[in-house]
Amino acid sequence: MRNLNLREWTPTEEPVPLSVRERDQLKPFLASIEPAPGTTGAYFLRPGSTIGALEIGDLSVSIEPKLPIGRVLYLAAYAMGVDFREERFDYVRQPTLVEALVPALTRAARRAFARGLLHGYRTEEEALHTVRGRIRVADQLRRRFGVPLPVEVRYDDFTDDVLANRLVKAAADRLSRLRIRSRRSRLDLAWVAATLDNVSLVVFPTNAVPEVKFDRLNEHYREVVTLARLILRHTSIETGRGRVRANGFLMDMTVVFQEFVTRALREELGLSEHKFRSDRRLPSIHLDMADQIRLKPDLSWWNGPTCTFVGDAKYKRVKHAHVPNADLYQLLAYTTALDLPGGLLIYAEGEANDVVHRVRHAGKQLEIATLDLSGSIDNLRAEIGKLAERVRALHRDARGHRQAA
């Protein structure tokens, strides 16, 4: 097994030998792969915002995040609706993001399972030789043609084979298929599987991991279920073509940052998902009269059919004197299409002072803000509070603009 260790947004200093298949498999997960001059089959690699681990044949690739691992998992979990405290898990000793996920999941599982496995009622339909529950008369007549046994029945079964346990078992199974170096971690994953032995092993698609509704009876499962869903959303097993197959845990920090900012601002503003929307819950927004140029801002505040705030979250380091023109043009397009007096760009890292650009002849105000993800959680929350105040101010300006029009 060959090991390749990379770091988020950091190019390799030396060329890396890769086969054609390895190069092609890696390409979607890196910002760039450039042939090294004067060599054959060697490349300079530059990772982008995707972090985690990937295995391609006998090549094991690790992409280390710039942020501490604990902070990455905090942001990802918060984006999914759970406010973890970093100190709950010992991330410092874990060399990679994947290695950190195992103790996170197994410790959360031990806390959840300490009260006994979660049980619930599940409706079953079977053909039995004894009557249980209700007889499905129509199915009995259609399938049995008057033969009395077996009997087609429907009944409610009180079982531990429920969605919450299935998610945890599936996540542990996904992690066990990755290259976990720690023997202790492998044993912990085996313990989770053994504890959930009677639970079905379900394959959940990464883009359709179901949610669990929590109440007082299953609230103690919230932490472990959230971690399980996070793992299932970002883990793929045996993808690829031909003899070379790839599997791994890969997380796009651009998406994590956008989802974190959206949820954090929504909660700080006290708004619902219907009012403060992500780009996944938008009505059709077009820049042109013919509805050919569609726009999808990351952040927007709606009062019924009317948008009163628009913004974008950018996982970039930026100096205010050198904000990418493309980002400003994009925000200007949003404010123009939605007839708003201004909008907000939020960057993941940058200079301390905020900047406002006033667009000549358009009357638009484009604001730039940064959010320091590397400080303490308390500082991060304080910065979210300040961002929320800027959002409120832009919201008020938009309402005043429409009333004056």
Average of per-residue pLDDT values:
87
Give the C-alpha Rg: 25 Å
Strand order of the largest sheet: 12-13-14-15-17-16
Could you say which overall geometry the principal axes of the C-alpha atoms support? globular
Structural class: alpha+beta
Could you tell me how far the N terminus lies from the C terminus, measured between alpha carbons in angstroms?
Answer: 67 Å
**Total tally of structural domains:** 3
Sheet having the most strands: 6 strands, mixed
Provide a count of the helices.
10
Secondary-structure blueprint of this entry?
Blueprint: E1 2-7, E2 16-17, H1 20-26, E3 30-35, E4 42-47, E5 50-56, E6 59-64, H2 69-79, H3 97-113, E7 120-128, E8 134-135, H4 137-144, E9 151-159, H5 163-176, H6 183-195, H7 222-234, E10 235-239, E11 246-252, H8 253-269, E12 276-277, E13 299-303, E14 306-318, H9 325-337, E15 342-350, E16 355-358, E17 365-370, H10 377-404
Parallel strand pairs: 1-6, 14-15, 15-17
Antiparallel strand pairs: 2-4, 3-4, 5-6, 5-11, 7-9, 8-9, 10-11, 12-13, 13-14, 16-17
What would you say this structure looks like, in words?
The chain has 405 residues and is α+β, with helices and mostly antiparallel strands. It has 3 domains: 2-115 and 163-254, no CATH class; 120-159, no CATH class; 270-404, no CATH class. The chain has helices at residues 20-26, 69-79, 97-113, 137-144, 163-176, 183-195, 222-234, 253-269, 325-337, 377-404, and strands spanning 2-7, 16-17, 30-35, 42-47, 50-56, 59-64, 120-128, 134-135, 151-159, 235-239, 246-252, 276-277, 299-303, 306-318, 342-350, 355-358, 365-370. Strand 3 and strand 4 (42-47) form a beta hairpin. Helix 5 runs antiparallel to helix 6. The longest helix has 28 residues, at 377-404. The protein starts with a strand and ends with a helix.
